[in-house]
TrEMBL record, chains A, B:
Lineage: Bacteria, Pseudomonadati, Bacteroidota, Flavobacteriia, Flavobacteriales
PANTHER family found in the cross-reference section: KYNURENINE 3-MONOOXYGENASE
Involved pathway(s): Cofactor biosynthesis; NAD(+) biosynthesis; quinolinate from L-kynurenine: step 1/3
Keywords, comma-separated and alphabetical: Coiled coil, FAD, Flavoprotein, Monooxygenase, NADP, Oxidoreductase, Pyridine nucleotide biosynthesis
Name of the protein: Kynurenine 3-monooxygenase
Family: Belongs to the aromatic-ring hydroxylase family. KMO subfamily.
Start and end residues of each FAD-binding domain: 6-359
Species for this entry: Gelidibacter maritimus
Pfam families membership: FAD_binding_3
HAMAP family in UniProt: Kynurenine_monooxygenase
Length: 467, 467
């Protein structure tokens, strides 16, 4: 296929910027359109920048684009979950028994800016800000934009259009409303919403609590988390039901009630948040949703990628990583040298869809794990055993969390099947006292492996009759 | 709550008509609006009426409305699946080992007409035809209608509005497009579509093939089925992929190719279908979809029921039965004497949602079972064992099919969990040669029960950590 083809990308967020960079590197003519102003020059106050957890799947994509070193400079390693109990006691629960396996807190704004800078270095990549896509004519491969500066509308055409415009994608909306083909689609909302808060840096720019961890205050039906930023601040997020329970977003309407709630459940965090009330009543409460759909493409004309195709809840720290992995997988399909875009898009979706469905489901499971199970005795026994297995048999055992987060060459779907079977095996053996944690570790490894394999085999026999 | 309340029901199909009848019996003022002409007087040619499978959950609702006897007169019992292999050989596979358990072929039009007749006997029930609901203002509890006769639009208000207007529900669309609350929604299409065909009666009005069965020509990736009608005809349905495989709806475009396809795969059926070509090219090809959503209600103003809330694929023969069961469950909630409609709607959805999700998933599983597994040796061994267990231990064993179809006092969700665990237990024990079909039946019953219980226990331990 000719490289001089014109590719229009809608949305210059993390996925769109990386895609523009990579397609630019491959020699395509890329036009990247973004509804917001340029994130590199827009006024974003320090300490309020949202951060994300970058892990091995995302880093693999950074390597592909040759920018791993620059990205590493923006990262703060988080080696585990720092669990805060209701008394204020802290326990560090590592993410892995292998020391080199950790996740990284990174600023969305700084990373996005870096990707835009790198993309712009290519003469064949043009970036346009303040231009919002309103709809896509997927039969004629044109997109309708509104220019927020001139307040006018215009139409752009291209050889292919790729929409990386997030959970509210204009292309996906056009697929849905167009009714030109059978478009499967789902949006599922959690009963919980979230609100961002913050710990500001100390007066001399230091961190008010332990820097290299993802802090969790899990309270069964709600939770608070905190991730560190380079400037010494932490971005803190409260996940809470909209309507249910004694305290919820619906009834936290006065300063007194908010303080009372934090005093009761997050006492040690409250001490670090003199700015709580201002944050709480200034920042919006936002919903948490999962979007799945299929097909992602229309013929060889248009394609959905990133959150536009598969928005997920944030509890596995994999939303950005999954979107970056989309680019890795798409790049690999381009390497296969298919004749036309329709085959490329079809092949890409066929490889990828099962994996993005898997991480969507895993992310919902992890919500329950984070807010509740980390405090549960049998869950902690499982994690302790897994940490010991990973440490002592580094080449022979990976927990579900490790499979998802640190094993970028295993697909999400495979990680889900194997990880869930392992969890089921260990939890059942612990519940039935078939595992003795004082036993020889090697014996326990073999028991876990055998029970996991039996679960996988039995599921396979049953599943063969479902599909 | 006062009985003089005005209830507006949108859609006079099977669910809406039964609901109008039942709410009429309970003394409410009911206005029932339908977009189509009156099905009792509209010209529907005999032999082409669509038929459905009425089973115990549906019959329970008929009993509640006091019309079981009248409905029974419209029924043709089907005692099992008549499996037609590619050579034309037939084998009867019973639905149950208990003789009194069978399903019933019934005409949609005749049953709907009966329900309308019964509803109309109540002075407090008014039915309006040719009036299509375009949208619902769920905050003000009003509905906008178009009158197809006068070609004018008008607005109706009511104390509550219940939408039973099917898979394309106007109320559900208003919920989705209104964006006034977090509305979870999914539509999933199968890659297969369906087309209705027919066996006409013999010249003297008899049945051309065995009357008391649901006939299946399962061919792994596609299938044909036939259900008997009172007039001696059968309604025949072809389920086939739109795009994939050697033959599909996309490429069956000539008479020659259609005949070739039927000659090759459905030879014995073709002999009964001199009218095949006319049917094939006259009747539409329609898609097969599943719709789920939540919440079903908005405050105490509006409620979705039947297919409007949960459209499912037809492969378990449970679409109509599930909608009728909605009315049974709703009626029971009304009996509880709640103070206001919001509590009634919330309670109803809380009871019901898990069950309609379950039957939606079971119906998709059964698609694979019908087109393929019925031909598979191990599947047949499982069914033979289950038939023997049901026959010899009628009070002590029910297959998944029996739990879903003949056990109206067990919820769909419970039937799914138990039925899937039983299937998994039996299939794995057969695959591992842990069940000997020549063994004492009592021994095998106990083995199946023990293995099923173990699966349920292990799933429960693992699931406690997912939610």
């Amino acid at each position: 296929m000719k490289k001089q083809q014109n590719i229009l990308i809608i949305g210059a967020g993390l996925c769109g910027s990386l895609l523009a960079l990579r397609l630019g590197q491959r020699g395509y003519n890329v036009s990247l359109y973004e509804m917001r102003p340029d994130i590199r020059t827009a006024n974003i106050s320090a300490g309020r920048s949202i951060n994300l957890a970058l892990s091995d799947r995302g880093i693999k994509a950074m390597k592909l684009a040759g920018i791993e070193d620059k990205v590493r400079e923006l990262c703060i390693p988080m080696n585990g979950r720092m669990l805060h109990d209701i008394e204020g006691k802290m326990v560090m629960a590592p993410y892995s028994g292998r020391e080199h396996e950790y996740i990284n807190s990174i600023s969305r704004g700084l990373l996005n800016g870096l990707l835009l800078n790198e993309a712009e270095k290519h003469d064949n990549v043009k970036i346009h800000f303040n231009k919002k896509c309103k709809s896509v004519d997927f039969e004629n491969t044109t997109a309708l934009f509104k220019d927020y500066k001139s307040n006018t509308e215009f139409v752009e055409d291209a050889d292919v259009i790729i929409a990386t415009d997030g959970a509210g994608s204009a292309l996906r909306k056009s697929y849905y409303l167009g009714k030109k083909f059978l478009f499967s689609f789902s949006q599922e909302w959690l009963s919980h919403g979230y609100k961002e808060l913050s710990f500001l840096p100390t007066e001399n720019g230091g961190f008010k609590t332990y820097k290299n961890a993802l802090h969790i205050w899990g309270r069964d039906s709600f939770m608070l988390i905190a991730l560190p930023n380079l400037d010494g601040s932490f971005t803190v997020t409260l996940f809470l039901s909209y309507e249910d329970g004694e305290y919820n977003f619906g009834n936290l309407t006065t300063e007194e009630k908010v303080i009372e709630f934090f005093q009761k459940y997050f006492k040690d965090a409250l001490e670090l948040m003199p700015n709580l009330i201002e944050d709480f009543f200034t920042n919006p409460t936002s919903p948490l949703g999962t979007v799945k759909c299929s097909p992602w493409h229309y013929k060889g004309n248009t394609l959905l990628m990133g959150d536009a195709a598969h928005a997920i809840v944030p509890f596995y720290g994999q939303g950005m990583n999954a979107s970056f992995e989309d680019v890795t997988v798409f790049d690999k399909v381009l390497d296969e040298g298919h004749e036309d875009w329709e085959t490329i898009f079809k092949t890409y979706e066929k490889h990828r869809k099962r994996d993005t469905d898997a991480i969507a489901d895993l992310a919902i499971d992890n919500f329950h794990e984070m807010k509740g199970h980390v405090n549960n005795a049998i869950f902690r026994e499982k994690r302790n055993l897994e940490m010991a297995l990973e440490k002592n048999f580094p080449d022979n055992y990976s927990s579900k969390y490790s499979l998802v987060t640190f094993n970028e060459d295993i697909s999400y779907h495979e990680a889900m099947l194997k990880g869930r079977a392992q969890d089921k095996a260990i939890l059942n053996m612990l519940a039935d006292k078939e595992l003795d944690l004082n036993d020889d570790l090697k014996t326990n490894l073999e028991k876990v492996k055998a029970a996991t394999q039996e679960i996988l085999d039995e599921d396979r026999v049953a599943k063969d009759f479902k599909h």
